[in-house]
Design a protein that fits this description.
3 helices, mainly alpha
Length: 79
């Protein structure tokens, strides 16, 4: 068996599920609280903050989500 780097496909799927079901709602609560504190500033600044916060959460998780929607590459080929 070849030595693999990183998480297996199944482990990445499970961690992706944890991130989506637990991590993302927590991040949304923090992001909306932060953006809510900017209510006295302009709408354009609020929009920029929401766009940046809406994109930046995925940056550390990009390798985790890569290829999750594809079939399991480790599964036997006869399935």
């Amino acid at each position: 068996m070849a030595d693999k780097k990183g998480l297996s496909y199944r482990a990445r799927r499970r961690w992706a599920l944890v991130v989506l079901l637990i991590g993302l709602p927590l991040y949304i609560m923090v992001a909306t609280t932060l953006a809510g504190r900017l209510s006295e500033y302009s709408v354009l600044l609020q929009l920029v903050v929401f766009v940046v916060l809406g994109i930046i959460w995925i940056v550390p998780f990009k390798p985790l989500f890569r290829g999750i929607g594809q079939p399991d590459p480790d599964a036997p080929k006869d399935q």
